[in-house]
């Protein structure tokens, strides 16, 4: 086998290991799935009527707000899952088995790839459950199958970027607590963007930030694909953000992993 | 490789240095481990044994010196070294969320053993390490001894020709320790080279072909167990008395004795033969001195350890007392 083939097999092995971990530690996955669902119910049934009325065009209600909310919440689910990734990465680094991996002739990135693949699966699970609940309480997307596919692609790209970022954050954390706190800003970002309310209702400085931070174009792209609102340049900007964040985080994570090795 | 296996060194190290910040941990180490032998590194806590194992097993970069492991330059071809070695570190390196069997399967997959070969190897190891039913339980519920066995079993999945064992029997009960020794002997019989660190001198005595004592970052003495024992002063008889008066009277009678006022003991040089022992007792009888207890101490690796690691004599004496009771 070539070394590329070995890298792929080793990554697959590490992915299977990660699946077992997810299976043996279900409370974490449960929390990650639960959080966005609770938020969905809270925002739709508690704030939904009021927030719906404030949507552009005016006169919206609870059912209009469900449609507005879901694309942003899907991203919120991804950042929640990213927090889980950082925690499990940091937890793994405290395990002696990582040292064993380092003394073996395996592709070093495979440990990280295993985490990333496992987390992506977890993220997909969170999003699927969220979508299911959303559809049950009145989310009415207008997307064609092709648009659904494109939306899934955008979510995958965003999830990929967030996961590599959180793997890096988990690796630079000295403790599991730090690892659960550092990605907190990722959970705030959907709120400080167009995820929950349109940005033009925000004060200038915040609005400026909200318009230019990466979550906003991704949310807008999803909204466009799922509900037929305008996408404009958002799609390209989103993919650029995802590519840049993924690449930088990947390099950062690899470096952090090597560094921890030398301690 | 055209070099004959009989003389090829499995490990050769020269001028190895390592510091953490200002702290020099290894200060110019030279050593050679011949293929198919057991090399044991002894040393007090903090001597740098684990650091040495971590460097030789590619976990930590060396600070200087040249190192060849399994025929490869450690700095230039770490992956080739990794492919040849197996490591069981001082601290458990098992995946606690996986069962014993899954841990072994993980190793089999990472060594790219096929499904059939992998299964056979795992079954063999479960049997050999007596994991039994527990192999299906998560490693987090294993006892210390069982975890240690699983740890070594995982190391053996890839059938390495050179194995590092960092304190493999620390915390094991006597039965498990002997079982571990048997396993190590079995490996040696198969021609595997072993680099072993240990706190137990009898372990090195039992297993090692060569022993090196590490202290303050240097190898203070190296040789076969017998060579090492022959390099330190001979044995002694240790006499303990009920009161200081008896102790001091005896000390006058036995001129060559070394006195310890606190422990109320006298240490009389002796090679342990019956005649010299009888002579000592006769002289004490003649002077009508009561001896509380007597123990005969033949030189062992404890003496080597204390003689070469610069531990104060009082500590050596204290240990000799307990040593006599073992
Ligand atoms: N990563 C590190 N950073 C700083 N100091 C370190 C590091 N690793 C080891 N040391 C220091 O190096 C010295 C040697 O440690 P090492 O673990 O090699 O000793 P050891 O001989 O294995 O001891 P023990 O018998 O207790 O296991 C110790 O003083 C330790 O504090
Ligand atoms: Mg140690």
TrEMBL record, chain A:
Membrane-traversing stretches: 25-48, 68-91, 112-137, 149-172, 184-210, 230-253
Record GO biological process: response to antibiotic
Keyword Cell inner membrane in record: no
Location(s) in or outside the cell: Cell membrane; Membrane
Top-rank taxon, per record: Bacteria
A single MF term (Gene Ontology): ABC-type transporter activity
Residue stretches making up the ABC transmembrane type-2 domain: 27-260
Name recorded for this polypeptide: Transport permease protein
UniProtKB/TrEMBL annotation, chain B:
Location(s), subcellular: Cell membrane
Topology in the lipid bilayer: Peripheral membrane protein
Keyword set includes Cell membrane: yes
MF terms (GO), sorted A to Z: ATP binding; ATP hydrolysis activity
Residues of the ABC transporter domain: 11-241
Keywords noted in UniProt: Antibiotic resistance, ATP-binding, Cell membrane, Membrane, Nucleotide-binding, Translocase, Transport
Classification via Pfam families: ABC_tran, DrrA1-3_C
Family: Belongs to the ABC transporter superfamily. Drug exporter-1 (DrugE1) (TC 3.A.1.105) family.
UniProt cross-references to PANTHER family, sorted A to Z: ABC TRANSPORTER ATP-BINDING PROTEIN, DOXORUBICIN RESISTANCE ATP-BINDING PROTEIN DRRA
Protein name listed in UniProt: ATP-binding cassette domain-containing protein
